Amino acid sequence: MHKQTHKQLIISSVIFMLALTGMISILSGCSEPETPATPEFKTSLKEDEIRNSAFKPDFPLHYETYLRNDESKIMTEYNGSVAYNKHDNVNPLPEGYKHAQPYLKNLWLGYPFSYEYRAARGHTYALKDIMNIDRINRYDEKGGLPATCMNCKSAKMNQFVKEKGDEFWAQDFNKLREQVDLDENTIGCANCHDPRDMKLRLYSVPLKDYLASKGKKFENLPRNEQRALMCGQCHVEYYFQDKGFGPAKKVVFPWANGMDPEEIYTYYATHGDTTTPGFEGNFVDWVHPVSQTPMLKAQHPEFENWSNGVHGAAGVSCADCHMSYVRLDGKKKISSHHWTSPLKDPDLKACRQCHTDKAPEFLKERVLFTQHKVWEQLMIAQDISVKAHEAIRMASEFTGEKPADYDQLMIEARQWCRKGQFFWDYVSAENSVGFHNPAKALNTLAQSQQYSQKAVDTAVRAAAYAIARDIDGDIKTIVPPILHHSRELQMGPEHMKSHPWFKYLPVTPKAPKIWEGNKRLIPAPAQAPPQTAG
Ligand code: HEC
Ligand code: HEC
Ligand code: HEC
Ligand code: HEC
Predict the structure, then answer these.
(1) Residues with CB under 6 A from ligand 4
(2) Residue-wise pLDDT tens digits, 396-420
């Protein structure tokens, strides 16, 4: 009862703050965009239609804008649609790019992200890209990742979940390869619309679960909240649940305490099966082989970052900037279904629906101002995270006389390392380089740097200061960035001698490639004959 009133108080102060921001925006001359009411439709499509092309006859103009998601060449200063390797700041596009973080393979060593991690491009590529990414093993019958990965790539999730329910998630990803059509079933209309009337409709199980946990019903939410939640189905932080907490590998949004990094971090402290001393009950994505730290991997928290940023707090939705109204063939305005960087448009029309008094150059400069500042701190946070792993490694191999509380100090060092890297990743994996929430991005990076530095200091103390000299200095000279690593390379003993950190990884047995996209290169192994009873 007491809690309820407290909550209501918070809600009413949020409403008050929103009203206040609205007033400020009027004062500063920012006009509200003209928002035509969503028209009502009646189609001949069935409720369970999931093929993208089936929507073309009824909505040729929407479909035309949708196909523009195929554009994969135009870049902006920090983003755009070329799927370059996000750790490669050596080679030029399309393989690498100047704004890449060189230590990604080091920081994710031992986790599939270290094999391949590329910049995002359009929704029409979602299935093609997941079929070819090295994170899912194509050299083994088992992909090594659950079917859950499919959740944010395909409108076929509607069908999968209906047929299999919670048994869907824990299947091996490679079992699904042949079941999807890469164009027809990629992210599409049925991920966001009810085909019968094109009303906005959620397909996402984790988001429905979250709303239910808050006693909310999607159908009753205001239109603007619904529009943002469409993107919140996928552009969020999530994890694959441990078995002790419900259906294994089911995707869950870790939002019970809130959406800020500290709130998500504390959520993970009590939502896992881990038994490692010092990490009991933590959720853990993988253990970093060099520092033996139980780690978390953050994934693209756009929704979380946006939600309490300048625009999110003012009720400006993702769709306002990423789906602005366009007029095709002189016909009436429609919402563009080309989801991409608003900076690719030299006129910045999306922004200037509201910022009518600002020139495109001014607005672009403001975005870049934020991004430059955030990038600078992101690179520093990344470097200190690497140093944390290396310092812990040195301390764990230290053979001299240890302080009495050595074991406890090593646990603390690893806790700081886990936390520092998660805070770095919360900003790193977020795709706007800070624009969606400049203050929170910089604050999160400042915290990351402090936490990772505490990991270094604590490890130095655990090793009775004996490693202080070795860990002092520029990290680039202590631990070089890993530029090349993949499933195939890990099968090569020579490659595995090319970086000092590889010695903490096994050389994997040589194996041929089984999959190319969703096609088999090697026939399936013969099924074992059924066991006869008796
Ligand atoms: C639907 C309306 C709307 C759209 C579209 C919009 N903005 Fe804003 N913008 C606002 C509001 C409201 C604020 C809050 C401050 C204010 O009232 O000026 C704001 C604030 C800003 C600020 C000041 C931020 C700060 O940290 O103080 C910048 C910069 C900005 N917008 C840039 C952009 C850019 C770039 C785009 C397009 C990518 C964009 N806006 C699109 C409504 C909008
Ligand atoms: C990622 C979510 C998403 C996907 C995928 C999607 N839409 Fe939309 N669609 C929206 C949103 C958000 C709106 C805006 C609704 C509003 O403003 O009330 C919208 C609006 C519409 C409208 C209403 C008229 C308009 O232009 O605002 C139509 C028709 C439509 N979409 C058709 C399609 C078709 C056809 C596809 C597949 C080719 C598709 N949509 C895929 C999110 C999506
Ligand atoms: C079903 C899950 C899903 C939904 C819903 C979704 N996205 Fe995406 N989005 C993705 C994935 C996956 C990618 C990366 C695809 C790739 O690189 O192959 C992506 C990429 C993007 C990109 C990068 C495009 C580029 O050119 O680099 C933007 C921008 C984007 N989404 C915005 C949105 C917005 C805005 C919404 C809501 C209207 C939305 N998305 C809804 C999954 C989703
Ligand atoms: C006020 C306008 C605005 C709002 C609101 C907004 N974004 Fe963005 N978004 C941007 C800008 C500007 C960038 C940076 C683009 C760049 O660097 O080229 C960006 C970048 C992105 C990217 C990466 C694009 C790329 O080229 O790879 C994704 C994905 C994205 N936003 C998704 C979202 C989602 C999801 C929401 C809502 C939860 C949202 N955005 C809300 C303006 C906005």
Answers:
(1) 76, 78-80, 120, 228, 231, 235, 302-303, 306, 311, 316, 318, 320-322, 340-343, 367, 431-433, 435-436
(2) 999 999 999 999 999 999 999 999 9
